[in-house]
Amino acid sequence: MMDWHTHKPSAYGGYLCSVVREDWDFVAAEHGMIPCFGIHPWYAGGVSVAQTAYDLDEYLSRFPQAQVGETGLDATPRHRDALEAQTLLLQVHLGAAFRHERLVHLHGAGAWSRLLELLRQREKTGTLPSVLLHAWNGSHEMAREFLDLGAVFSVGVRELSHPDAAARYARIPADKLHAESDDDPDSFPRAVALLALLRRDIA
Ligand SMILES: [Zn+2]
Q: What is the Å distance from ligand 1's center to 43 Cα?
């Protein structure tokens, strides 16, 4: 068992995701975790897309065990003005992940349908990498659409405590839905326990 999405080194191991470019060397250091290189959509503004593409290629070549993330889209009121910049940057991450055959950690707050559209487009052109949708909080119906594209999901205490958690998560196959701690490594055991309870009570 490991933490499928976190930004802080964790005793449980798992995927250690960067948030900004300056994090990359830190996540790549020896933490006993899998480093993920990316730029979070909240920080997409003002980032050079070409430079990021270049850096991603270089880091993914240098660290063959590394994955890509965090990246994605955020269409919540505070961030939706930057959707165009977010989209350009996301495509660079997806392209690099596809070429290097890595998993991409996706953020999609308020933007799951946009993400679905964009991933479907890439599937059509044969350039879709493996993707993980982190903090997944969409409907079960939409989860099935993403599952058809080969996606996996991770959820934390925040998502698992939601009144709709059972309807959203209990029917996703166990090997496609994993526990994460995001910014709070201490919350990981509770996320694992909540996920197990939810499955036991529904199955
Ligand atoms: Zn995150």
A: 12
Q: Quick one: which H or E segment has residue 137?
A: none
Write the pLDDT tens digit of every residue in 162-184: 999 999 999 999 999 999 999 89
Number of neighbouring beta carbons within 10 Å of residue 48: 11
- Cα–ligand 1 centroid distance for 109 (angstroms): 11
Strands annotated E in 38-86: 67-72
For residue 105, report the distance from its CA to the centre of ligand 1, in Å: 8
The per-residue pLDDT for 202 is 63
Mean pLDDT, the chain, whole residue set:
96
Distance 197 CA to ligand 1 centre (A): 24
Q: What is the mean pLDDT of residues 71-75?
A: 98
**Dihedral sign of CA atoms 48, 53, 55, 56 in order:** positive
Ligand 1 centroid–CA 150 distance in Å is 20
One-letter amino acid for residue 117 of the chain? E
Strands lying side by side in the sheet with 103-107: 3-6, 14-17, 34-37, 67-72, 103-107, 130-134, 152-155, 177-179
- Reading the block at residue 101, the tokens are 């055959």
162-114-100 Cα angle (round to 5): 100
Ligand 1 is an ion; residues with CB less than 5 A from it: 70, 182
